[in-house]
Amino acid sequence: MTFLALAGLLGAATAQVQAQDDDMRQDGKGNHGMRFERADADQSGDLTFEEYAATIDARLANADTDGDGRMTVGEIADEIVRIRAERQARRLVRRFDVNGDGALTADEIENRQRKMFALLDRNDDGMVDRSEMPRRGKGHHRRHRPQ
């Protein structure tokens, strides 16, 4: 393996490890993240090196798009972008998919937009002015998220 390929692999693995480390940390209640549960293939409550490595390997499996046995920076970057885009798309579908069929319709999107707009329109005048917009900046870290 050439130095460039090794460096790319190590960089991708480091990024994946950091992301998984964040996902696998315990929250304040002692609960493990969902990815920990998926990585724990035998559901033993702990991860072996093999289980941990398999999780990272699965994420990088599609990165070698030209099948030459090497993952270039471009291939790894493309895979990371694809993974992030799919994650964001799943979140979007979960938030807007009213009927739970796993797909979005124009009606579901418009319905969600109307709900979000109604929450912003605090004085119910059918318009949102600057004073009704959620504040950003120091002391206002909570996002305005309608249910």
UniProtKB/TrEMBL annotation:
Annotated signal sequence range: 1-19
GO molecular function: calcium ion binding
Biased composition (Basic and acidic residues): 22-40, 122-135
Domain of life: Bacteria
Keywords, in A-Z order: Signal
Biased composition (Basic residues): 136-147
Gene3D superfamilies in UniProt: EF-hand
Residues annotated as transmembrane: none
One of the Pfam families matching this protein, by short name: EF-hand_5
Protein name: Acid-shock protein
Record organism: Nitratireductor arenosus
